Structure formats: C-alpha cells, structure tokens
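Continuing the series of single-chain predictions for the mutant panel. This is the parent chain; the variants come on the following pages.
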Amino acid sequence: MQLFTDEQLDRAEAYLAAEKYDEIRPALEGLVADAQTYIDETYEPDDKTQWFSFANQFELLTYKRVEQDPRELKPAARPFDRAFADLAFCEMQMEDFEPAAEHLKQAVRWNPMNCAHRLNLAVALGNCGDLEESLRMTYSVFARASHSSHLVRAYTNFADYFVRCEQYETAAACVKCGLRMHPDDHRLNNMATELALKHQTNPNEQTDELTESLLDAQGIPQTANVEVVLSALLLADIAAAREDMQTCQDMAQVAVDLVGQERATALAQMVREAGEDAYPEEGGAAPLGSDATDDAAQAALDAATRSARAGADAAVSKGA
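Parent structure:
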C-alpha cells in the first residue's frame, strides 16, 4: 500500500489555508482511509511496544518523562497525527464536529505531546455537548505543553467555564495566569475587562495569594510543567556539545517561552551542574535523534532531574 507523503499533506494544507474545504475534504478522507488500513494491518501495540509519530526528539523524551511509559517506543512510518488533524480541521470548519472529534482522538493517540491536537479536540468535544471530556482534555495540556500559547488557550478555556458557573474569582485567577504569559492576548484582556465591569472581579487586582488558593482548589497549575522545561534544557546542552547550535537555540527558546529568560537561565545552570557527569562521551557520541542518543539523553535527564527538581520547582514558581 502506498501511503501519503509529506508533499501531499503540504498541498492539502494549502487548500485548507485557502478555505477550500469542499474541494480538499474528499482527498483528505482518502488519505486517512488508506492510513487507517495500513495502521490496522501493520501495527499491533501491546504492553511491550507502541508506535508514535512524534515530530522530534524533544517530544519523545518529554513523553517518556511525563507519561512514564515503560514500553519500547517506535517511530511510525508517517506523521499519522498530522493527517488525522488536517481532516479534523477541515471537518470543524464545515461544522461537522462528531467526525472531527473522532479524527482528533486519533491525532492525539499518534502524537500525545502535540497540545494543539488536544485543544482542538476539546473544542470539538464541547461542540458535541461533551463538556466534561472537553475540560478533561483541556486540563491534560498543563502537564504536556511546550508552547506558552497552548497554556494560554487552556487557561482561557477554564476561564470561560468558570464564568458560566458564576465562579468569577476563579475565572479571574485563570485569566491572570494566562496574562502573565501573554500580556497582550486579545481574548484574555477582553475577559479581564468583562470580569471587572460586569462582575466586579478584576484579575489585575487579584492578589497572588488568592489566585494560588483558587487554582489549587481546582487542581490547576499556575506554571508550565517543570519536566517539560528540564527536557528542553537538557537537549539544548546535548545539542551544544555536538555543535548543533540550531537545535540548541530551538530547545533553549522552548524553555524561555514557557518560564521566561531569568528562570530558564537558572534552570539551565541546575541541569548543567546536576547532569555534568551523565552526558554521553563526546568522542563517540551518536547524533541527536538516534536510538543511542535516546538512551544517553534519558540517562542524563534522570541524573539532572533527581538533583535539580526541588530547586527547579522553586525557580519555576518564583514570581508567579
């Protein structure tokens, strides 16, 4: 069976960008049907092995840290999550939410670390009337997000929910956390204004102590998951040792985006000091992205986080 190519997905996404949904939907449905047949015939996951279509080494390592999955993880033949997500996007634009939700569930299955899939699934589920599952999917973003924009969307979703429940102080706490990350976010600023004018609850005037108390009561974190930040910083150090400066800069930027420059710098120093003896030998080091580096990076991350986690938690939450 001939599977889809990246070029085919690129062309399909160009149609989506041009809002030609009717034209491209049949082609995407064909790609996904062929992909599903291939998946059913090829992959037999069990308690020892699973296949994923992670986009990069960072997603793989972060998945291992967050999910604690003991199985052997293997790369899928194609970016299946992208194909399912493209079809789901088309369906959502055509307000066909039930199949969109099913296809987004498949996108999450193939790349559980892509939080855009999770947030879009939350939207689809909400439009299908499944509010509880929509909130559960939104909540799952807090442990996995590698982009501050995804955390902002999650805070916004919960703020909307708490407004509907008339829990205005808790809604304001969510808005306040989102604005810490993206102070210019248009939707959050509109919500802040509405809360202040209509409900006499101004997120900008809410104390840090009250914000923390309200979010703790709901189990909602105030910051990015420190494991995600540490994973990015470790891979930045490994890439630097291999003189792969582009990967180093990309991974460092992930940390800065999530926790800010000052806290990212403090965490980077902790990782460097704690993991110094655990890094792979430079002379025979495998290239970043290889199976050998998977094991070495995981060992380094284990060593670094054992020593650094307590201080890292404090550094991430400082100033929150």
